[in-house]
Design brief:
Helix content: 40-55%
Radius of gyration: 54 Å
Oligomer: single chain
Distance between the termini: 161 Å
Number of helices: 21
Low-confidence stretches: 50-68
Mean pLDDT: 75
Largest sheet: 3 strands, antiparallel
Shape: flat
Strand order of the largest sheet: 5-4-9
Strand content: 5-15%
Structural class: alpha+beta
Number of strands: 15
């Protein structure tokens, strides 16, 4: 009977290292958990440079001996990486790799999970943020991967619950075996050779983070500090030489000239040699063996010199000798810059250049470094995807739900994002100019500028129309309090305002044909102003009729009678006619008379005799 347990099914799921699922129609989605598509494995890529050094022609395959040879070389490399981590520059570079790869986005999230299935998204969020505690643990995982080239995590899996815990394993103890089974060349197993003995794990039980950039290091990854390993050794030796030189040659010394007096010339050399031996060497007796040895005394190198003199230079004299200057600083700077170039970290952010100019992140200063961080993030996401697939499969998810999700880490460079935005802005501006000039069709713009296929740009046009409908619905809800999707009516639009008052009344029914309702008729009983809105009819009745019993009639030339008559309708009209008819017949006659009338001003104010003379 076949084993149908969850662990046997997981083993079968990861037997090929490539998970393929149908996500709709003929569309497939592939999850390359071991990244075979990028670098392959030992079987497909041939012999690595570490194993073939110790192989004979009779053993060209991959067996136990080759694995042991490579493991031996791997541990030697790891020992160098441990020593390199003690260097200030390399240690800072490893910290920067981890810092830039685990930045938080604008929503304060390290890892972004995108999935159409809301249930799957919640499960993965619980896995990474609650179970794996990725906000804290992802930093050391990525740092160890950059340091050694590999980082191993053991997954504690419980049926029905998925991954309940992750445990980091030492890279020194782990061995990855692949291509050993001829019947199943893609089978991958892991062995741990630690203090508790040899333990073998299946592929789904280990998450192996590895930097696959060089096939010579397969089946392991290549450390980020490996290109700088040789330069680092040269720089270390150069720095040690500088320190030794400064200690031995830098101190200032004095020369004491000693007068030898009457010592015979043939004895001066022996005397001088005795002084030199005394200054540079001291007798040394080994306490265990009793052997006598003239040991080199470095302390005397920092002491003063004593020289004998005679004759004209007799007498005691003291002179100072300056220490030797070390001029190999340029060589050290050359090796240091070379090592920084191998680390791909701008030296401004390692404290060797003050021209930082207020950049927020390291990747903002160097776009090339941002691409390096993106490569590290893609490798980390690939292994996190494997953990997510194991978790979902254990909880019962299959088919498209097993692979239909995306994980992403925050892009470290804001400048890198701004460059992408600027490119899209230029494309939109170009498309707008072409549409305004009417030189090319919209189809050409979609296909050549935005690189959309025939079906894609038609779908986008439909989506634009759907967005316009949604925008109109939001405007109606905000301004009129009406939801057109529910009432199937609109209010306040220009069409609604133009047709206001012309729609059929609901009481009479919506007649599709016939003369439209003209509304209230002017000077009718239904009109708010009545039949006589301006009182025209009542005006004539007020002046012509005299049926008021309370009115008094005055006779004769009574002022009240004249006043009463002046306010009657007829008297007003006559008064206006008399005032308007100014040119009477007599006036016309006078105007036609050629003889002008004469006036006698004698005795009046206009008499010239009344003018007073101005002289006194």
């Amino acid at each position: 009977m076949a084993d149908k347990s969850i662990f046997s099914r997981l083993k079968k799921l990861f037997s090929s290292n490539v998970i393929v699922r149908n996500v709709g129609g003929k569309k497939l989605k592939v999850r390359d958990t071991s990244r075979l598509q990028s670098v392959g494995n030992k079987v497909t890529m041939g012999v690595d440079r570490f194993s073939k050094v110790r192989k004979t022609n009779s053993n060209l395959g991959y067996g136990t001996q080759s694995q042991q040879n490579f493991s031996y070389q791997k541990n030697e490399l790891y020992a160098d990486y441990e020593t390199m981590d003690q260097d200030a520059i390399i240690s800072s570079a490893l910290d920067i790799y981890a810092d830039e790869s685990t930045m938080k986005n604008e929503f304060d999230q390290v890892l972004t999970i995108s999935c159409q299935n809301e249930n799957v998204q919640k499960i993965l969020h619980n896995l990474f943020y609650d179970v794996c505690n990725i906000e804290f643990n992802l930093w050391p995982w990525i740092r160890n991967m950059c340091k050694y080239g590999d980082s191993f995590l053991k997954l504690d899996i419980t049926e029905g619950y998925g991954v309940v815990n992750v445990v980091p394993l030492s890279s020194y103890e782990m061995t990855r075996e692949e291509g050993e089974d001829l019947e199943d060349p893609y089978k991958v197993t892991f062995k741990q050779d630690g203090g508790g003995g040899n333990v073998e794990y299946d592929n789904f039980e280990i998450a192996h983070f590895r930097l696959l950039s060089d096939s010579n290091f397969l089946p392991y990854g290549k450390s980020m500090v490996e290109p700088a390993r040789k330069t680092w050794k040269q720089l270390t030796m150069m720095e040690d030489a500088m320190m030794i030189h400064r200690i031995m040659r830098a101190p200032e010394k004095r020369i004491f000239k000693i007068d030898v007096g009457n010592i015979p010339p043939n004895e001066v050399d022996a005397y001088m040699q005795a002084i030199i031996d005394k200054m540079k060497k001291v007798p040394y007796i080994d306490q265990t063996t009793g052997e006598y040895n003239l040991k080199f005394n470095m302390q005397n190198m920092m002491e003063d010199f004593y020289l004998p003199t005679r004759g004209g230079e007799s007498g005691t004299g003291i002179e100072s000798v300056q220490g030797l200057d070390f001029n190999a600083i340029d060589d050290i700077e050359y090796l240091r810059n070379k090592m920084m170039s191998a680390l791909r970290v701008p030296k401004a952010f390692l404290g060797y250049d003050e021209n930082v100019e207020g950049k927020a992140t390291l990747a903002a200063e160097d776009i090339r470094f941002a691409r390096t961080i993106e490569r590290i993030q893609r490798i980390a996401i690939s292994e996190l995807t494997k953990i997510a697939i194991v978790h979902l499969y254990t909880q019962g998810f299959e088919d498209a739900d097993l692979v239909d999700f995306e994980l992403s880490l925050t892009t470290p460079s804001t400048v890198y994002e701004q460059e992408k935005i600027a490119i899209w802005q230029e494309k939109i501006r170009l498309a707008t100019d072409i549409q305004g000039s009417k030189l090319l069709s919209d189809e050409w713009i979609y296909e050549n500028i935005f690189n959309l296929g025939d079906t894609a740009w038609k779908d986008e046009r439909e989506n634009v129309i759907a967005d316009l409908k949604l925008k109109f619905r939001q405007q109606q809800i905000e301004s009129e309090g009406n939801d057109p999707a529910k009432t199937l009516k609109s209010f306040g639009t220009p069409h609604d305002l133009a047709s206001l008052g012309q729609q059929p009344s609901e009481e009479r029914g919506d007649a599709p044909v016939g003369r439209p309702d003209i509304g209230l008729k002017y000077k009718s009983t239904e009109h708010p102003g009545g039949q006589d809105p301006i009182g025209d009819k009542d005006l004539g009745k007020t002046y012509d009729r005299n049926d008021n019993t309370m009115k008094h009639n005055f006779r004769g030339n009574s002022p009240l009678a004249k006043e009463n008559k002046a306010h009657t309708h007829k008297n007003i009209i006559k008064s206006l006619e008399s005032r308007l008819k100014i040119k009477t017949k007599s006036v016309l006659k006078e105007s036609l008379d050629t003889k002008l009338p004469t006036y006698d001003d004698t005795g009046g104010l206009l008499d010239e005799n009344n003018i007073i003379d101005g002289t006194v």
